[in-house]
């Protein structure tokens, strides 16, 4: 091993500047790689192994990781927990947890592995309880598939305990506790979706379903006839949302911490009934009657002079009788009754109406000259209406929570500068840094080699001549190694001796002979070019 190092050191000393620089670059690259690996070993990169773990699953997981001697990081505080492990040992950590007999995701839902010898000794109530629990967990997994639900726990009370005792649906109640994502509450449509899933999975009526979130806020509590609970919840939600929006607006318009605002909305539920009767302008016939009458019409008789008949003795009439047939008179009558259509509409609505807004605005004494601006911002945001009876109370006081200097002026916190996005070049350097360094080193070595090849011919001639002299001296020294060359017998063939030494050198050090011959050829070529010029 010492001979190898000595040979390498000798070759390094005899090498040219370009070769030395290249070897130094390679050595530096190796040291850089070794240092990077050592730094990563001391500062490993942790990745998420599991999240949203409850206490039993969390304890099982960290016990398995500690037994497998795997470093991990966990979140503090109450559940749900998260576990992070080294990126290079993630698969080993999963193997350790699986080999411990527990899984990160507990077996939930309807399972087909309930049989076996372990279920032989279970009682009827235990079997029924296990089956019900599987059904509830199936409903929980359905709820957790919603994008605004992180975790769900469902419990149904009043479940039947005997197949012979049929339980009425009115005796069952369902309660659901949800862990929501973010700080928002489900909308009316999302709440209806939650209630529909629970009702379909459990068969419990809507008026016996209760849904709350992790902050004890009631999302759904049955169907109340008077709507008092829903009205109160609407007031609280409206006031909370408007106060939060107004505070965010003031914190952006003024220095943070110097303004406090609260908005309270009073709502009322009004029952409105509307009855409307609309007439159809088009008339339609309802009934028609036609009557036709025919009567004979006799002609009138022609009489004599006035008073003649009355003056006769027998009083007989002197009227002449004509043999004429009477005419027929026809009379037609038609009666038509028309009906005008009408539409009667009866509407009953119970809308929630905003009755009044009450706004409380407090500004620090340093912003006393900006009261009107703050009031205008808040009024425009919440929809302030004086005709509705909305009121606003504004005060300017020295807020005790604000830190002040010696002159009593508020000390504003340092502004939070947004983090600059990572440059794509930095990402490229982090991902392919070693490859880039190696490529640059190779490029620099190549450039230096090309510069050396383009050096002046005089230096090449001098180098070639010196190399030729060193080669001739080496051959002469080799020939005279056993004694004085001048004292040797003149009968010795010098050409044969030179060939023998050259063959020996070819067998022992072929690279050195090749270098000598190359230099000699270059020297001869340079000499021939110089003579030709």
UniProtKB/TrEMBL annotation:
Residues 252-396 form the Flagellar M-ring C-terminal domain. Residues 339-349 have a biased composition (Polar residues). Residues 474-483 have a biased composition (Gly residues). Residues 457-473 have a biased composition (Low complexity). Residues 42-220 form the Flagellar M-ring N-terminal domain. Residues 281-298 have a biased composition (Basic and acidic residues). It is found in: Membrane. Keywords: Cell projection, Cilium, Flagellum, Membrane, Transmembrane, Transmembrane helix. One of its GO terms (cellular component) is membrane. The keyword Transmembrane helix applies. The chain crosses the membrane at residues 21-39. InterPro entries: AMP-bd_C_sf (IPR045851), Flag_M-ring_C (IPR013556), FliF_N_dom (IPR006182), YscJ/FliF (IPR043427). Residues 272-304, 326-349, 456-485 are annotated as: Disordered. This is Flagellar MS-ring protein. It comes from Saltatorellus ferox.
